[in-house]
Amino acid sequence: MRSTLAAPLALVLVAALAVPPTMAVGPTISLVTTGSPTGNTPQNHQNEPAIAVDAHRPNVLAAGTNDFLDWQPCPQDAATTRGTCRGSNAGIGLSAPYFSFDSGKTWTQPTYTGITSRDCPGTAVADCTPHTGPIGTLPWYAENGMIAAGDPALAFGPRRVNGRFSWDNGSRLYYATLAGALDSAFPQTEPFRGFLGIAVSRMDDPSAANVNDKNSWLAPVVITRRTSATTFEDKEQIWADNAATSPYFGNVYVCVDEYRSNGGGAAFSQVIQVVRSSDAGDTWSMKQVRSAASNVARGFHGGCSVRTDSNGIVYLFYTHFEAGSPGVGGHTMQKSFDGGASWTKPRDVFPANDSCYNIDPISGRCVADGGAGARIDLMGSPSVDIANGAPTGLDATNEIVDAWGDGSAGLNAEVTKLSWSMDGGMTWSSPATVSLPGDRPIYSAPALAPDGGAVYIIYEALTDPWRGGDMTSPRGYHGVFRKATIGAGGVPGAWSTIATGPMGDIRATYPGHDIYQERVGDYVYAAATRDYGVGLWADASDAVVCPDVQGWRADSYAAGQRVLPGAPYPTTDCDPTFGNVQIMAVTTAP
What we know:
mainly beta, 5-stranded antiparallel beta sheet, globular
């Protein structure tokens, strides 16, 4: 989303280790979202980066984001009368793929064909008809009656040939996404019932030679067919059992928050589902792992994370927060010893605080920076990794780490916490703060080297206190990547800061549609090999705050509702880079 990258030294703080100058090798910062413009909002906006590393070919990485590249430039009538840049975008996908073949130092975003509005003019009215043309998002969705609707999650596993999984066969990439139907009628009947389902796209052996070929992707498979007409799937995560020592080697697992009425989690029936495949994603079976209940009656359960150890044990984590502000509860763990067919009873493993000290009166979402702020609903959710020794599994320590943003110390004192277990989650370390002083992390993710030699943390953080209704004072925001070597007993040693992203102002962001809200997404991801770690974050340093937007946000916040008509038109009232949220990667690969 920028035409040229700033010099890496402007972005990087080298790890605080004494290294002779002739041996000094700093991390590499690179732009992931290479296909997007700096202007033409909302085409310049991406959020919610996910990443996966191929354990068999550790220089190969795949990433995904919510990418608005294929949307129509903001139409004036939609902006001024409805406060949105959502124009003629029916059927336009959001889930975009990116690839790196040099351990995260450089990235490519393929261009395919599908339904697009990207070449429509940003005119006074949203009069564009979506049509077949170039897309930067997943292919084959429109052809199968669907939209790739965001919340990307990716995993690599072994290929299956003649019924047998083996790394000798190559690698398979799995890309899970929310999926909506092209037909906007309700209730939906095909290709699934409900508001949103989950679909999985697959590609074998991604390479520089084949990722630009649409035919390298298999058609997406809908994995959540047994749903009701009011079902809403959200915030899925995918994992492939990638350790050859596992008796369930090659199995793929998707966990998902499922809401069974159109409340998006606002006190409606909600469950955690796990969907699994044992045939490389051709067919899937769904398992409800805990009983459905109102999340007011029994607390909120969501923000799931799923991983496997070298023995094929599947670990599922999610939040359990009681209703209230902030939500106080903990992280819940369940395990499966039979490849996901059955699960242990839920067990809360340690306490957590979701940092929801303020709920925006208009968006209705938890915010931490101020009015009209960026939502932090999933800040306290578990993000988990396991040192399972992939690809062979032979040098696994099976250490588990869990990282999250925590508000136990109160508003303006939020931190990233990390806890670890060396005995399959039976006991856990006391949560330790791993973020830097002065940072107020909102989203965090860990990554463990497969042999358990090092742990990495990526987090996005605010740097200013809660602003309330003050829309004119800065709201600093940046990404940070840290590392610790793991010592005896699985204990992380001293933490060093590998890199800090450049400072941005989160007020210059919005979610690509609703001009009232700021947005950088709901999660970040990291990955690690034995030789390097890599993290992704949503960067806002090249986005410029728009005074007209801030004035309208202030008026709306004071009024308790969006003041409409009269919202600003970003194309003419703002700097062209308003909304320019781009995804950056940092890698320690030599």
